[in-house]
Sequence to fold (512 residues):
Amino acid sequence: MNLQSIAQHDLARWQSVAQDARQRVEPRHFIDGDWADSIDGGRFETIDPSSGEVIAEIAAGSEKDIDRAVAAAKKAFRSGCWSRMAPRDRMAVLYRFADLISENAEQLAVLETLDMGKPISDVINVDLPLVCETIRFMAECIDKVDGAVTNTAADAMHFILREPLGVVGAITPWNYPMLMAAWKFAPALAAGNCVVLKPAEQSPMSCPRLAELFMEAGGPAGVFSVVNGMGEVAGQALALHHDVAKISFTGSTEVGKLMLQYAGQSNMKHVGLECGGKSPQIFMSDLPDLGQAVEAAYRGIYENMGEVCNAGSRLLVQRSIYDEFVERFRSEGQFAYRPGQPLDPATSMGPLVTKGDQRRVLDMIETGSAEGARLVFGGDAPAELEPGAFVNPTLFADVNNEMSIARQEIFGPVACVIPFDGLEEAVHIANDTIYGLAASLWTRDVDTAMHMVRSIESGVVWVNTFDAGDFTQPFGGYKQSGNARDKCIDSFKSYTQTKSAWIQLSPPGGAS
Ligand code: NAD
Fold:
């Protein structure tokens, strides 16, 4: 069932699809072109966060399983079956891969929703279309990204080849399981590398199926393997592996720092990091349209349950419009997202990913109140949805940037409004964080906008919008939000290395 046809499914239909999917969960890894159990037989439970029920026991990879997948990837890379495949042929496989993902959207969508609680409508309207678009964009780069011939003296020819790195290890989070994986495997594969992916243990079900679809599309065995398991076991083994040329990581800043250590302890592999954020949205009093700005504010923090790296979690509002802004957010934002069963296509907000995350976010909310922020609405769990891991949309006003809720990444549906007086104060507060992933600012004044674009320390700055963009846009962080750039041509290039070939020439006729 493809993406278009499943858009019409109602709740009953999704429940029946989900029931079927639960009975047929594939628990194994996908290694070297086939399904594989863990060598040591390890398993872990994956849990439906909307109900607390165990869905399945999934294979937990150990160092041995990682070794097996990396060895297969290295062999496939050295054979040239993928890395030296003609560019148009490699493109064709990736286009077919994207088509197959779309054709299998029903199964993939329901696995994602069961596993991490994301509303089914988000998976089919956001995640899956973007997974396909990522693969197609990176496929298009294959014969568009060139090496170079440089200007040398007449007695030499110098050219620069752009070559794949080898085996790429990808370690990904659970908030957009297939999409965050695609931001890594798509450019890595397109550039000719082989990939071993270790998904987050909270959302293990969808990515192994993607690797199987890659094979169905004509990808050679060993080129794309997926090993599930715990971060500190399978993830660490991958990041420490001597035959892995690059680790591409998306996740917390804390674990991102470990990746740099693992690279240093092993083979100096390349490390691409996409880590946490505490993104400011700055609302100047001359913003073009208050209604539009308030909508961007609540969408920017409640979308995907607030489990978004670039969530607009700090709302900096100029004091002259502060009361009106908070009141409009209260009246319009409070009921815009209602927690509900994620399989219902009408649901806009599912549970958090685990009960532990629900507890952590509720504790952060308590801390916010204890430190003096004003709870405007929310702050609790919806009783009627127990025992799911739900948290109601929450708004804190009168927050200052020293409070824990303004400094730590909450990764839940908790908005914090911080008042400020002037432009320089806004820039100071925006930059007063260890993170620098994204920011937005709202103003009609082009001078203010340009000054702020230049002054804000983050990898992405939006003006009079939030979370807009396309595949030409590099996405990644400054400071402790990371060092990589996803989505764009630079992302493709970051899975390549240059080789300089200098050819000394003899003068014409001189060789005789
Ligand atoms: P996490 O850091 O806990 O886990 C991420 C991945 O790392 C998982 O696969 C996990 O198993 C693995 N891991 C954990 N410990 C490891 C270790 N010692 N060695 C090797 N691997 C290990 O993050 P999470 O909770 O899954 O995801 C949420 C975080 O991801 C948030 O901080 C969020 O901001 C960030 N994120 C960033 C972006 C971005 O593009 N910048 C996108 C999505 C999520």
